[in-house]
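Appendix B. One record, verbatim.
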Amino acid sequence: MTSPRAASPQVVVAGHICLDIIPVLTAVPDLRPGSLVEAGPAALSTGGPVGNVGLALHRLGVPVRLMGKIGDDVFGRALLGVLRDHGPNLADGMIVTPGETTSYSVVFNPPGVDRTFLHCPGANHTFGAADIPFDRLGGTRILHFGYPPVMRRFYSDGGAELHGLLSKVRERGLVTSLDVCQPDPHSEAGRVDWAGLLARALPAVDVFAPSFDELCYMMLGPNARVRLDLGQLRALADRVLAMGPVIVALKLGDQGLYVRTSGEHARLERLCDTLALDPVIWRDREVLAPCFRAARIAGTTGSGDCTIAGLLAALLRGEDPVRLATSATAVGACSVEAPDATGGVPRWPDVAARLAAGWSRLSVSPELTAIGTWQHDAHGTLFVPIIPERS
C-alpha cells in the first residue's frame, strides 16, 4: 500500500501499544491444567490504540504519527517490523527503551465466542506525559490517546498525569480524543476510582469514545448490571457531556454506535473552529448507527479501535454527525473481515463505494428505538432531527 505520510500528520495516536499474538483456533480451547490444545498458525499484529487506531487511519489514507513505548527485546523488534511493513515511517515516533519489556497479548479468538486476552502491560506502565514531544505536534489537528487503564502512570494519583497531558495538548490548539479499556478488576487498576478519574480528565477531552460496558464499569462500578436501552444510553451520555467533552461516542458491540453531542456553546465552537465544522449541525445531536453486515467475520479484535479511526477520519473530512456515525461503523465492519485488527480496513474510497452500493445493516434491539422520534438517512443510520433554535 502506498504510504500517505508525505503530508504532515493530521492525527497523532499516542498511548498503549502491544504485540498481539493471535493463534488460529477451530474450537473453544479446553484450558484445564495439564492439557495440550492444538492451534493453527499464529498471526502477529499490533494491538492497542496506537497500533490499531493508527494503522487503520493510515490504511484509510489519513497522515498519522504513532507514539508508543516498547522495549529493545524480541517482541519490540517484531512490533517495529509490523509497523514498517505497513509504512516505512510509521515506526519513527516509537520510543524504544533498553531493558524494558514490550507489551504483548495472547488473543484467544475461537469461532462463535467473544475473544479473551492474556495481557502483559510491559513498557506501557512507564510511559508518561514527558515521553510526548510536544514540539512535534505542530500542524497536527487531533491527538487521540488510548487505554489509560493499562498504563500505570496515567491512572495513578487520580489521573493527574492524564489530565496534564490532555490539557497541554488542548493548549496547543489540538482536538483531544480519549478511549479507555476495561481493567482487570483484580489488578491495581481495578481498584482505581474511575468515576473520579474521569471527572478529573474529561474537562480536557473533546471526543470521548468508550464502549457502553467500559463506561458502565467506570461510572457505575464493576458490579453494575445495566440493561442496554436508549434511556440508559442517554443518561450515561448526558453525565459524560456534563464533565466537558463535546462528542461522546459509545460503542455498542453488535448493536452499533451511539453518538451524542454537546449543546454547550464555547466548547462546541472551539472544536468546530479547529476542524472547520458547522456548529449548527453539530449542536445537541443524537445518532444511532447500526452495524453493517460484514461479508465474513474472521475476528473481532480491534473492531472498536477501527470504529474510532473511522470516526476521526470522518471528523477530518468535515462530515456531519449522521454521516460520521455511518462512516465509523462502516470502518468497524470492514475490520472484522480479517483476523487481525486492521487487515480488513481498505482505503476510504473503497469503503465509500460499499456504502454507495447499498451496504446492508444488522437490526438493532427494540429497546434502542422505542423512545423518541427517529429518522433514517439513506444508509439506515437513525438520528433525531435538528430542532431549530428559537429567534
